[in-house]
Design a protein that fits this description.
100 residues, mainly alpha, two-stranded antiparallel sheet, 3 helices, 38% helix, elongated, bacterial flagellum biogenesis, repressor, FlgM_C, Negative regulator of flagellin synthesis
């Protein structure tokens, strides 16, 4: 924006123009040859992508196992090993000792 003030008699004021005061730059030209993009992925990133794709195919709940346990409970034929249950709980909820 350019503001110019003319000195003069009564009624003279500021003239405002909306032009740019910076010199105009020539428009850039497009490259003459074809432009292509490329993507390079490390072997570690590729491994993670493949693993993630395979994991998404695994259901969160193993319905076959749930149904088998439900059938055992309904038939009153479910008798878990109390020592195995206790060991599993300890492994799950006990923090690892330092140095492990």
């Amino acid at each position: 924006m350019r503001v110019s003030i003319k000195s003069g008699g009564t009624g003279s004021g500021a003239k405002v123009s909306a032009g740019s005061s910076a010199p105009s730059q020539p428009a850039s030209t497009a490259p003459a040859g074809p432009v292509s993009d490329a993507l390079s992925v490390s072997s570690g990133a590729h491994f993670v992508a493949v693993a993630r794709a395979r994991i998404t195919g695994i259901p969160d709940v193993r319905l076959d196992r749930v149904e088998a346990l439900r059938a055992s409970l309904d038939a009153e034929d479910y008798h878990p090993d109390p020592d195995a249950v206790a060991d599993g709980l300890l492994k799950e909820y006990t923090p690892l000792p330092l140095g492990s």
